[in-house]
Amino acid sequence: MDMQVAKKKLGLKERYAVMTRGLDWTPSYQKMEDIYPYMAYEGIKIHDWDKWEDPFRLTMDSYWKYQAEKERKLYAIIDAFAQNNGHLNVTDARYINTLKLFISGISPLEYVAHRGFAHAGRAFPGAGPRVACLMQSLDEIRHAQTQVHAISNYNKYYNGMHDFHHMHDRVWFLSVPKSFFDDAITAGPFEFMVSIGFSFEYVLTNLLFVPFVSGAAYNGDMGTMTFGFSAQSDEARHMTLGLEVIKFILEQDPANVPIVQRWIDKWTWRGYRVLTLVAMMMDYMLPKRTMSWKEAWEVYFEENGGALFKDLARYGITMPKCAEQIALEKDHLSHQAWSTFYNYAAAANFHTWMPDEDEMTWLSSKYPESFDKLYRPRYEFWREQAAKGNRFYSKTLPMLCQTCQIPMVFTEPGEPTKICYREVDYKGDKYHFCSDPCKQIFEHEPEKYIQAWLPVQQIYQGNCFPEGTDPTVEGFDALAAVLKYYNLENGRDNLDFDISEDKKNFAEWRGQATKNI
Amino acid sequence: MHIDLRTVSIKPLRHTFDNVARRIGSDKPASRYQEGTLDMQQTANFHYRPTWDPEHAIYDASRSAIVMADWYAFKDPRQFYYGAYTLTRARQQDTAESNFDFVENRGLAATLPEPLRDTVLKLLLPLRHVAWGSNMNNASVCAYSYGTGFSQPHIYQAMDQLGIAQYITRVGLVLGDVDALDEAKRAWMEDDTWQGLRRFVEDSFVIKDPFELFVVQNVVLDGLMYPLVYDTIIDEVLSSQGGTPVAMLTQFMTDWYAETRKWVDATVKIAAAESPANKEVLAAWLSAWRDRAAAALLPVARIGLADQTDEVMGEIVLQFNARMAKAGVAI
């Protein structure tokens, strides 16, 4: 028998290299710029794609194996949860409103992330980033689907979630998260990676995804908690990718630094404005709180983010300037947001309520600088009014910020009793902004932001009524027509929690499940 | 015997989401495939046009010449959502792993006749680049196509092709070593045998119409190449010459093709049944790209088939035509 020549033994890194980069080649029958047409226009210069350090080395065979194991466990728990009426174990029915916010506001974004990472993966000429992006694209469809599957059981018993795709594309406040992701995916592939891969996944994920999952854990929601924990190792991979992207771009060319800095500034602010919804969720909607918004911001942004930006200083990247303004807003953000939703509860797909006495005490202790002085009196007044049968629902439409699309309810930095207004004249039209950062973002790319589909303007233009509606007939009820367009069932999906079907059903069902009546 | 385990039963207010109920006709319990697929992609009130493609909306059906009244007419007969997909692939991966173990532990690679081993290395290893190209093309279809019913299977297909490229790489490392991979890449870049196929693949990279790209990659190229390379050359010709261990190492590809072609056929069938105009577009794409692919594969086929090449290739093209005719497109 012939002696076998000993084969070269491959190390893990080399083995991964032949499994990914070794597959790629430099084309000669078509031009690079025709195959990768989106590489130049953002002004980012990449000299050597091979300098990319693979953030994780996962071949498809191990990917399938690990992920299938996670899926098996996750769906076993979701099934058990459904069979067991797990929804009746949550702290109280108010909690379920966070899930309405989540499935109509956040889950559709996971789907956009899936498509966006497919786009970025296709657009980059480097084999390393392509594989990492496509794996994330695959993970993101997982997240979108496991969220829908986990929350599906709640939809069977509670209102407000029944047409979440339709609502995501239409309901006024959902244009805030939607426009955020639309903004990212319509940007070039490099900006997409900085916006979602870095700013969103790396810098802000602990303030978005984590509060919902921890909130679920604190409030007895096994189903939601499980998909969160199951996604944790995916998220860890995504964070590593986000950081690698930014380091790679910065190391490639010094001319990339100012472009990236502008993107980090923009997306930190854009992300923070979307977190307004999370802030009010943390401070008002979780019956059992995990931590206050302010605490979360201090831990996850000011401390952890501070360390990150120190680390990036060697590339010439500095902490986004907007961080100072955010720090000034942290005593006010959640209260101003909740007040707004309390007012507009007729047009939202979840219920609102006034905090009870214990909760007011908790809020005072978490916000000693602002709560008792500015917000408690307001709430006490509203509570009194509600007790007298004057629960107020605002039916007029608010002015929206052209960039973040949140109603203009935020106050001047450092002046919490004065509403902040900014405006810009552009090509004969006036555009309104909630803040300096939103105004600056617009000024940098006005042609992009004038396209925004602003829900209020669209209603006034008659674009948010069911087909065939005649708004000129006598006694036309605009709100009713808009709710129909949203497919939001008046009296069931909206209004105050106290009078909701959710509250009534939950009490009845819990009784049925725990008492012998 | 029937045992009656009791649970507290509460009457649900509804059985599925409204969008699913509208599509399946009534409010009845829906499958995970349905809830995880239908209407997942946003359809209305987009805020900005892509800076990278201002002519189109973010998701825009007009990127394709194929016109559908409803893109959710496309359904995956495998009902793959992420969970079902990964569980299926993990099972196949188990089989592949034990096949590799079997071949490696018994030293079967060393028992292959030398000429046969060379044939396999020459034929199979450059195909890892073709699979890599397919990974990119399927990512493209996933990114730019319309409706999750059509776009979703393409991310699975993209990752499958990356997996296949990696399996081929492993075959190369079992039967040869890194030098064999390098040599195959050199052949892919330089040898006349491969230039037709490389040109075909690179030309597919610049196709903008996502449905055309689906046709070129998943219908035409895979539709000729998998029956040729895996079903015919490896599983029949080489196996009869003592190459069964190779067939074990490529079982994943054989099984994968048998599975994915069901989805491919269903997709062609639905698009063709939609309108005579679609059928015409499909027929034009299919026949033009089929001729190019068959010509490009001919020198590759010769590596394994020698003087039987023309006959076998002719047979494979006929089978492909019959398959398309069954899906509703005569070519």
From TrEMBL, chain A:
Spans traversing the lipid bilayer: none
GO MF, any single term: monooxygenase activity
Annotated ranges, domain YHS: 411-453
Top-level taxon in the UniProt lineage: Bacteria
Keyword annotations of the record: Monooxygenase, Oxidoreductase
UniProt-listed Pfam families: Phenol_Hydrox (PF02332), YHS (PF04945)
Name recorded for this polypeptide: Phenol 2-monooxygenase
Organism listed in the record: Thauera terpenica 58Eu
TrEMBL record, chain B:
Keyword Membrane: no
Protein's recorded name: Phenol hydroxylase
UniProt xrefs under Gene3D superfamilies: Ribonucleotide Reductase, subunit A
Domain of life: Bacteria
Pfam families attached to this UniProt entry: Phenol_Hydrox
Keywords, alphabetical: Monooxygenase, Oxidoreductase
One example GO MF annotation: oxidoreductase activity, acting on paired donors, with incorporation or reduction of molecular oxygen, NAD(P)H as one donor, and incorporation of one atom of oxygen
Species of provenance: Thauera terpenica 58Eu
Residue ranges of the TM segments: none
